[in-house]
Design goal:
With 197 residues, this protein is an all-alpha fold. The protein is 65% helix and 0% strand. It is rod-shaped. 17% of the residues are buried.
Amino acid sequence: MALPGSTGRQPGGLRSLLCRPGSARPPSAAADEEIAAELYREYHRPLLAFVLRLTGGDRQWAEDVVQETMIRAWRSADRLDDRTSSLMPWLATVSRRIVIDNRRQREVRPPEVGDGPLENLPMADEMDGLLRKVVVTEALDSLSPAHRQALTETVLRDRTVNQAAEYLGIPVGTVKSRVYYALRALRVALEERGVTS
């Protein structure tokens, strides 16, 4: 059992894997794996407890910070000094900087909101437009062919009364009266179908 304040290191643990500053350690995959495993074994729990306080109890965030800290320690293993009594101060500094960087990134990014506000946003229902077209088409079909033709040429095809009269081959006055009476009949037909202005 480890004494309070100690890391519970065994002789020859991480300290034996680190090298003195200025001395070169031969790179080896096995040595790297040993260093990573030893770092995790010795410092994971105390570092996680420390980072949990920094993250306000957010365990997932704290785990991410500890993992990133361990990766940085593993990458810097050749620069760590075996004469230090503990790597915890260095690890705590690195993890505190990671937390600060994460908070800064979150502040820059606009806060995310769920779909709640979008659900209450009124949207035009396409079904209403489709039903309106059906009702207007039925109302137009209820008109006489002469009235429907006069409305089609003047309103739907956007022709002047003179152009419609020339196209239909009838006098201008007749087109005007047919349009007038067609609009009146259309208004009545729409009111019968429940459409009001």
